[in-house]
Amino acid sequence: MQHTVLIADDEPSVRLLVQATIEAEGYKVLEACDGDEAWALIQEHRPSLVLLDVRMPGRTGLEILGSIKADAELTDTKVILLTASAQQSDINAGLIAGADFYLTKPFSPRELLSRMDEALLL
């Protein structure tokens, strides 16, 4: 089964790097450049996994994470926060909000793929 993954980040270079990394592994990729577009794509496509930047225009990654967790139809959707917010308080807030994993930028493509595989097996 091919998993659909949404990348939500306001930095085009980050989206390009992540897309190149995960498409090579056979994932179907959707992209959003802000939180509002991300939420619309999540509702329409129901991706298996969402990679969310915490700080972006429109809804923040944490707001989207909260919306995913509150939606009964999205209970199987996994979320990895992929962000420059590296403070321990940010990491704790993301995990408490329900993220499956929290990766800080810059990130290792190998680590990203490893966490994605782990999240999709949960």
Features:
5-stranded parallel sheet, alpha/beta, 122 residues, Rossmann fold, 45% helix, 20% strand, 5 helices
Distance between the termini: 16 Å
Element-by-element helix/strand order:
EHEHEHEHEH
Which architecture name does CATH use?
3-Layer(aba) Sandwich
Poorly predicted parts: none
pLDDT averaged residue by residue: 95
For this structure, the CATH topology is Rossmann fold
Describe the biggest sheet?
5 strands, parallel
Structural class assignment: alpha/beta
Report helical residue fraction: 40-55%
Radius of gyration: 13 Å
Beta-strand fraction estimate: 15-25%
Count of structural domains: 1
CATH superfamily grouping: Response regulator
Estimate the global geometry from the Cα principal axes. Answer: globular
- What's the CATH first level? Alpha Beta
Report the total helices: 5
Strand order of the largest sheet: 2-1-3-4-5
Number of DSSP-assigned strands = 5
Please describe the topology of this protein.
Layout: E1 4-8, H1 12-23, E2 28-32, H2 35-45, E3 49-52, H3 61-70, E4 78-83, H4 88-96, E5 101-104, H5 109-121
Parallel strand pairs: 1-2, 1-3, 3-4, 4-5
Helix pairs in contact: 2-3
The gist of it:
This protein is an alpha/beta fold. It has one domain: Rossmann fold. The protein has helices at 12-23, 35-45, 61-70, 88-96, 109-121, and strands at 4-8, 28-32, 49-52, 78-83, 101-104.
Describe the protein's architecture and organization:
The protein is an alpha/beta fold and 122 residues long. The longest helix is centred in the last third of the chain and has 13 residues, at 109-121. α3 (61-70) links the parallel β3 (49-52) and β4 (78-83). The chain is built from 5 helices and 5 strands; from the N terminus they run βαβαβαβαβα.
